[in-house]
Specification:
Strand content: 25-35%
Bound molecules: flavin-adenine dinucleotide
Number of domains: 2
CATH architecture of the largest domain: 3-Layer(bba) Sandwich
Number of helices: 11
CATH topology of the largest domain: FAD/NAD(P)-binding domain
Radius of gyration: 21 Å
Shape: globular
Distance between the termini: 45 Å
CATH class of the largest domain: Alpha Beta
Number of strands: 18
Helix content: 25-40%
Structural class: alpha/beta
């Protein structure tokens, strides 16, 4: 019996979710059902598997079982960068980057297509992304990012401090680097849209935490808080909660990161923002702040990484960390000193040691998928589609690319891991203190 001891439950205020219309009532799993495939987790990985599997197996009944609401998970609480490629630090092996980029691009293309096809209102914006460097660490990294873009022959343009000032209204950054090709979204709206547009053969059960899975009668019996599901096969798409099901233990580190969102800026406040046009900026240092001005005039700030092995982010942390977001805002736009955040929240993401994967059949009939490291939303979209192909024996060049990625390597046991993560985090944070 696989019995998770930690069940995700977010109690903080995810701004992307809160600014949407209230959701329709959750369809809670009650009584006993039977499906061919049950997918656990309605994040980007789970929903992507569901969309593709329903195409490959149109006569199958498929269920997606979610502990919370689709769109209020990591996939709906992120910074909303749907990336074609992204790389911190010295240029990686270019062949590896090119290989990964094929996956990220195909995931991005899937998302573009679904947003168009289902007319998902998620503020999809083909802005690309802007990198900013403020101090010595940022300068090193921004030059490395430009070198990587050069090697990949990807278009990019530089902005001086003065140009950054006129574009986004702050002289905080020494320079900026813009590259097209990726998109910005409201991630909660995107995820809700993907969930709403699941085909009729896929039933989504929300607020239905899975409490146990066991083998039964040649398939699986899944126990939820108020019901149960019999399934011939199961896909575990539980994000950083995968180890709770006994899979991918010690294969990735779960890091919490935090974000805040203001109310729509007033005309006065917006006049501080240079051209006042929406933008998405990534710190060029790994530990730099991510900043967005949304199409509906809200300012978004994300920073801080904390080791969070398994446990959902707590409200107490969020309160502390929102004061760091305030500092990041004030140091860039002193004129916004009085501007309040309407929402602050946290979420977790997975980092492996070797940019490896968790993908495939872990034992007969039981599949697992995880997205991690860089570009996780587009990577997860592609991996989800490819897992459905893998499950149904559909071969493709892209599936070979996915299969060529090494498995996520084993990490040291705790508490050695904790010490290693704390040391690396401390060093990155110290180096990037001017980028915060
Ligand atoms: C603040 C923040 C900013 C980020 N910014 C970006 C960004 O700009 N671009 C980008 O690409 N990535 C970004 N990420 C990372 C990205 O959001 C995640 O890596 C990605 O969403 C993970 O997708 P997933 O499907 O694996 O997991 P999730 O979205 O977490 O989905 C897993 C689902 O499984 C469910 N589940 C777990 N256990 C159970 C159970 N027992 N029963 C039922 N359901 C269960 C969970 O509730 C959850 O809904 C960011 C993350 C955070 C937190």
């Amino acid at each position: 019996m696989r019995r998770p001891s930690i069940i995700p439950k977010h109690e903080d205020s995810n701004g992307w979710w809160e600014t949407l219309l209230p959701p329709t009532k959750a369809n809670v799993l009650r009584e006993t059902h039977h499906v061919q495939t049950a997918i656990i987790g309605a994040g980007i990985c789970g929903l992507s598997v569901a969309h593709q599997l329903s195409k490959q197996c149109p006569n199958d009944d498929i269920a997606v079982i979610e502990a919370e609401r689709a769109g209020n998970n990591a996939s709906g609480r992120n910074a909303g960068f749907m990336l074609n490629v992204h790389s911190h630090g010295p240029p990686k092996k270019i062949d590896v980057l090119r290989r990964n980029m094929k996956l990220w691009l195909s995931g991005l293309e899937d998302l573009r297509r679904m947003v168009r096809e289902f007319q998902i209102d998620c503020d999809w914006d083909e802005y690309g992304r802007l990198y900013g460097s403020a101090g010595p660490d940022g300068e090193i990294h921004i030059a490395e990012i430009a070198e990587t873009l050069d090697q990949l022959e990807l278009e990019h343009s530089w902005f001086s401090r003065e140009e950054m000032q006129s574009k986004i209204g702050t002289s905080f950054y020494k320079r900026g680097l813009h590259t097209p090709g990726s998109a910005l979204v409201n991630p909660a709206a995107l995820m809700r849209g993907l969930a709403r547009n699941l085909p009729a053969s896929v039933q989504l059960f929300e607020e239905s935490p899975v409490l146990g899975i066991e083998r039964s009668g040649g398939g699986f019996l899944i126990e939820t808080a108020e019901g149960s599901m019999r399934a011939d096969r199961v896909v575990l798409a539980a994000g950083v909660f995968l180890p709770q099901f006994g899979v991918a233990k010690n294969r990735f580190v779960s890091m919490a990161t935090y974000a805040s969102l203001t109310a729509p800026l007033t005309d006065d406040e917006l006049s501080q923002m240079g051209s006042a046009e929406s933008f998405g900026l990534l710190g060029s240092s790994e530990y730099g702040s991510t900043i967005r001005l949304t199409k509906d005039r809200r300012l978004f700030i994300r920073n801080v990484f904390e080791f969070a092995p398994g446990a959902p982010t707590s409200n107490a942390n969020v309160v502390d960390i929102s004061s760091m977001h305030r500092k990041a805002m004030q140091v860039r736009w002193p004129g916004l000193a009085e501007t309040k955040f309407e929402h602050s929240w946290g979420g977790q993401m997975a980092f492996t040691n070797n940019n490896g994967t968790v993908f495939g059949e872990v034992e007969t009939g039981l599949y697992a998928i995880l997205t991690n490291d860089v570009s996780p939303m587009t990577r997860g979209t592609a991996a989800g589609r490819l897992l459905a192909d893998f499950m149904t024996g559909q071969d493709s060049d892209l599936l070979s690319v996915q299969m060529s990625i090494p498995k996520a390597s084993r990490l040291p046991p705790r508490p050695i891991l904790d010490i290693g993560v704390a040391a690396r985090r401390g060093l990155l944070r110290l180096a990037a203190r001017k980028e915060f």
